[in-house]
Write a structure and sequence with these properties.
With about 90 residues, the protein is mostly helical. The protein contains 3 helices and no strands. Helix 1 packs across helix 3. The longest helix has about 50 residues.
Length: about 90
């Protein structure tokens, strides 16, 4: 009987920890997406507003960022801006 109780308690601890892990990873992913969108907004400003190429914009920032990643961030910002513009405003 003690072994069953101990096993059930262990299962509960594991379940709680696994749930915490899942929630933490979801929050991390949401935060990364927010920051990627902000970076994309800035890339849009540099490439469209300042007429830099994507390579030039990355070079000016002096960070290691692949062109593919920069393009993904810029596309993310464009998509979310487009979705926001199409959604009705709420009062």
């Amino acid at each position: 009987m003690r072994a069953r109780i101990a096993a059930a308690q262990r299962d509960q601890r594991i379940s709680r920890l696994a749930t915490k892990l899942a929630l933490t990873l979801v929050r991390r992913d949401e935060a990364i997406q927010r920051w990627d969108r902000r970076a994309g907004d800035i890339l849009i400003a540099l490439t469209r507003g300042e007429h830099l190429t994507l390579d030039e914009a990355v070079a000016w920032s002096r960070i290691t960022l692949t062109k593919r990643e920069a393009r993904r961030m810029r596309t993310l910002a464009e998509r979310q801006t487009g979705e926001a513009d199409q959604s009705p405003t709420s009062s």
